[in-house]
Write a structure and sequence with these properties.
CATH topology of the largest domain: MetI-like fold
Number of domains: 2
Largest sheet: 2 strands, antiparallel
Order of helices and strands: HHHHEEHHHHHHHHH
CATH architecture of the largest domain: Orthogonal Bundle
Structural class: mainly alpha
Number of helices: 13
Length: 332
């Protein structure tokens, strides 16, 4: 097991290098750069003449190395991450990228993790409920709801929830983490409840697709396991149906769910991204969107690299958990 984990970690380093290179290439594909955005701001907001703004943009490129070839920019970025732990300089925020991400990453991970746990528990539970009742009314309704949850865009759910909160439930503040009166107040039960009121829509919206996916995977695999010979044998021994399902069928049906967990967490982060942008929650997501619009390359590249780390580590943890669950699996 230890050798297997070490091999996977070495492979993960190579995969992350490839992800970082591809991410840096992709974010450089759109024409122009942040200096071009800076030039337009000088013209539109500062009233500067185009020729003067062009000269200012040229100086700006030289100052931040935007005039260097892309491979050199990439190598400088990676060198800063490896040697100094710095992810570059945000030209839009005029701050270190690592500091910006460190401020918002805990909130983002907390919301995504809550959505992940909720979607897994609810999805697996519903899958266990409907699989023994195949083609019943309960099964058909659950399948139809799962189809809707995977088909309807999550930003649409965010818009609907905002409308209901504002116009139906008369909630005055639906963005940010706190209402204005609690922003600087010390922590209390009232402030915790205020945070819950502001963040539960993001958790629900981010987890909707996960609920549907987990339910469909669990339902399909449990149906296959229920038709296995050892399940038939357990029934023939006179065991109760609930014992057959929970003690014999469910543990073996969980394998695809566990393998799926390695990929689902970045999916929850993506769902959090859509909901947080629509609802103006100050997590990494709005900053990521702004960096794409402004071509703030180091923020964009660092966040994409962070998503890659989540995916690689998630798959590693899923493999280890699967080996721990199933005694037939042994890694040497």
């Amino acid at each position: 097991m230890v050798n297997y984990i070490l091999r996977r970690l070495l492979m993960a380093v190579f995969v992350l290098i490839v992800i970082s290179a591809i991410s840096f290439i992709v974010i450089q594909l759109p024409p122009g750069d942040f200096a071009q955005v800076y030039k337009q701001r000088l013209i539109n907001q500062g009233g500067m003449k185009p020729r003067e703004a062009e000269e200012a943009a040229r100086v700006y490129r030289e100052r931040y190395g935007l005039d260097e070839p892309y491979p050199i920019q990439y190598l400088n970025w990676i060198k800063g991450i490896v040697t100094e732990g710095k992810f570059g300089y945000s030209m839009a925020y005029a701050r270190d990228v690592g500091e910006l991400i460190a401020e918002r990453l805990p909130r983002t991970l907390l919301l995504a993790l809550m959505a992940h746990v909720t979607s897994t528990i609810v999805g697996v539970g519903v899958g266990i409920l409907v699989a023994p009742r195949q083609y019943s009314m309960t099964d058909n309704v659950a399948s139809f709801v799962a189809f809707l949850l995977t088909s309807v865009p999550r930003f649409w759910f965010a818009l609907v929830i905002i409308y209901l909160l504002v116009f139906t439930f008369k909630q005055e503040h639906v963005s940010s983490f706190f209402s204005p009166q609690y922003a600087l107040a010390p922590w209390s039960l009232a402030k915790v409840w205020d945070v819950i009121k502001h963040t539960w829509p993001v958790v629900v919206i981010a987890g909707l697709g996960g609920v549907a996916r987990n339910m469909r995977v669990m339902r399909g695999n449990l149906l296959d396991v229920l038709n296995a010979q050892y399940v038939t044998t357990a029934r023939a021994k006179g065991l109760k149906e609930s014992a057959v399902i929970m003690k014999h069928a469910v543990p073996n049906a969980l394998h695809p769910i566990i393998m799926y967990q390695g990929m689902v967490f970045p999916y929850m982060v993506q769902g959090e991204l859509e909901a947080a942008i629509v609802m103006s929650i100050p997590t990494i997501s709005p900053m990521f969107y702004d960096s794409l619009v402004n071509q703030d390359i180091y923020i964009t590249g660092s966040i994409l690299l962070m998503y890659g780390v989540m995916l690689v580590m998630g798959n590693l943890f899923a493999d280890v958990a699967l080996a721990a669950l199933d005694p037939r699996i042994r890694y040497t």
